Amino acid sequence: MSAVTVDAVEGGPPPAKRKNKLIIIGAAAALVLAGGGGGAFFFLGGTKDAKTEKAAKPNPAAEAGEGAEAESFLDVPPVVVNLHSTDGATRYLKLHFELVAAPGVKAEELKKRLPLVIDAIQPFLRELRPEDLAGSAAVFRIKEQILLRAGDALGPDQVKDVLIEDLIQQ
To answer: If you placed Cys at 101, which of 21, 30, 72, 144 could pair as Cys (CB 3.0 to 4.6 Å)?
Structure first.
């Protein structure tokens, strides 16, 4: 009996062609892995780490000089109001926010006049309907109205921004 390989008996490809296919498949797999590794490097590891980036960024307070004032915040106690409901159901809104004093204005000065701010925003909040509070645009509108009404109550250039901490509808 002559030396016949198992592939020849079973009708498979000759050993040389089989070896070439394995080399091609291996090379293709290596290219895919190298490409994926390079992509992962650029997306995940190709930038500086967070500590290096923070150290590289200039400090705005340091640029303004030593006399730069820190922002002062005035915490406004939570305001709870009934919402205007067309279906007769009782609905409530609880709003807790902070006022950011304008540069040169101290929060203690604003705190003395805080009842004027609360009195100015309550009518606006009471006229809101539950559907007025849907979506992220509602938060922006409420912040804008509080800022306008606080400016009217406290005077121009007294409040820089409004920070909403809680906005709960029940």
So the answer is: 72
User: Which structural domain range is residue 24 located in?
Assistant: 6-45
Rounded (5°) CA angle 153-85-135: 70
What pTM was computed for the model? 0.58
| Number of domains present in the structure of the chain | 2
- Asked, for residue 127, whether it belongs to a domain, the answer is yes
Query: Per the structure block, which two tokens stand in for 3?
Result: 């030396």
Q: What is the pLDDT of residues 2-60, one digit of tens each?
A: 555 555 555 555 666 777 777 888 777 666 666 666 555 555 555 555 444 444 445 44
Q: Report the DSSP pairing between strands 159-169 and 73-82.
A: unpaired
Any domain includes 88: yes
* Residue in 134, 65, 62, 150 with CA at minimum distance from that of residue 93: 134
